[in-house]
């Protein structure tokens, strides 16, 4: 039998460090590359004019009136961020969240203003009721429970009103069953077939949303969201949620939070190969900010490492409050 030479028999030593010797070499063989184009900046839009109110638990994040939201969007564009995700903070709330589909509400007004001033910007909108209900829940409460189908009807109204105002992408974040199909059907029926739908497909009942509720004044007045948001212990269930939303017509699917669910991002991307977003949420942002302010870590490095990990796991789109800072760091 002919003798086969192996690396070992030739005395060749594998030295993986050869490709790490210099920055030029490391960047040449780098597998995962971040770019500002994949990042989306969330904005909290409130009533009034000239309002720029910092969120106490989210340094660098503000409640913005419509005029300030336009300015922030323009500034983000200068940094290379071309996509924003709008959340609304109405002055008036009721038990059915009717301000969510008021054409003069902050989100609808901001969509029109951004599209008028900055037509090249991609405008996404969060479609949910928690910021609009006086009880802070994501839907219609009947007998102390979130009623699925009546809530979906309200979400459809909100999504259609966003599309009518000019939103490019509507993003239902409530985790009610069947809302993706209902919204897609309503949009198509009303002539908004070009409005894309990004579903919060696997949204977990996470402790890392705390600062967001501070920003959006949307903490539930009673109970919690365990009846509709996913149990953090479940991974396979996320695949069923995502599959259902794709079947119902979602164009982009999202996993939220991002950092504590990197395995879910990877499994979803490997299983479906669909355009996949991940939301680097308020608590994940606030932890880095707090540690950096205490001098406990290098914020720039920690930020870029975190965002790289989210992209490496399989996210094509990263929704992050760090979008502008990250874009500047990457420039």
Fold and architecture overview:
Helix 2 packs across helix 3 (106-117), helix 4 crosses helix 5 and helix 7 packs across helix 8 (262-272). This protein is an alpha/beta fold. It is built from 11 helices and 12 strands. The radius of gyration is 22 Å and the shape is globular. The chain has helices at residues 23-28, 66-79, 106-117, 148-165, 179-189, 210-216, 236-247, 262-272, 282-293, 299-313, 323-330, and strands at 39-46, 52-55, 58-65, 83-89, 122-127, 140-142, 145-147, 169-172, 196-203, 252-256, 276-280, 317-320. 47% of the residues are buried. Helix 5 links the parallel strand 8 (169-172) and strand 9 (196-203). The strands form 2 sheets. Strands 1-4-5-8-9-10-11-12 form an 8-stranded parallel beta barrel, surrounded by 9 helices. The protein has one domain (31-330): Aldolase class I (TIM Barrel), CATH 3.20.20. It is 38% helix and 20% strand.
Order of helices and strands: HEEEHEHEEEHEHEHHEHEHHEH
**What is the number of helical segments per DSSP (H or I, 4+ residues)?**
11
* Helical fraction: 25-40%
Outline type: globular
Note the gap between the termini: 58 Å
Number of domains: 1
Unreliable residue stretches: none
Reading side by side through the largest sheet, how are the strands ordered?
1-4-5-8-9-10-11-12
Mean pLDDT: 93
Keyphrases for this structure?
single chain; 331 residues; alpha/beta; TIM Barrel; eight-stranded parallel beta barrel; two-stranded antiparallel ribbon; 11 helices; 12 strands; 38% helix
